[in-house]
Write a structure and sequence with these properties.
The protein is an alpha+beta fold and about 120 residues long. It contains four helices and two strands. It has a single domain, classed as Winged helix-like DNA-binding domain superfamily/Winged helix DNA-binding domain (Arc Repressor Mutant, subunit A, Orthogonal Bundle). It has helices at about 25-35, 45-50, 55-65, 100-105; strands spanning about 70-75, 80-85. A hairpin with a 2-residue loop joins strand 1 and strand 2 (about 80-85). It is globular, with a radius of gyration of 16 Å. Keywords: DNA-binding.
């Protein structure tokens, strides 16, 4: 069993250094979680939070748009992203679950609208 070191005890989990070279979730999921927080973050800010380049975030957003997961809404000089939470997860092992299911567990603390609200 691992215990956390005293130096990271007061540090929020998102700011703690990684203990290895892999995570349970993909960068696509990390970007989606950042966008689901609805804070109007720029893609540069999302890149900083995820720990990847801004160009990688742009490619991920393009993938998510092409898959129908995200739609872009222009607001002034910024883009806002709407997430279609009714979309099923893509892997056959998870296809019985929706993005709503994923985001309700891992997403922002505020409740997300369900697929019926979309």
């Amino acid at each position: 069993m691992r215990t956390s070191s005293s130096s990271s005890a007061g540090t929020p989990p998102a700011e703690r250094p990684a203990e290895g070279s892999w995570t349970f979730l993909t960068n696509h999921t990390h970007v989606l979680l950042c966008l689901a927080q609805g804070e109007g973050s720029t893609l540069r800010e999302v890149a900083g939070r995820v720990g990847i380049t801004e160009r990688a975030v742009q490619r991920i957003v393009a993938d998510l748009e092409e898959a129908g997961v995200l739609s872009k809404v222009r607001e002034g000089r910024r883009n806002r992203y709407r997430i279609d939470t009714s979309r099923p997860l893509r892997h056959p092992l998870e296809a019985h679950r929706s993005l709503h299911d994923l985001l309700s567990v891992l997403g922002p603390p505020d409740p997300l609208p369900g697929p019926e609200d979309a």
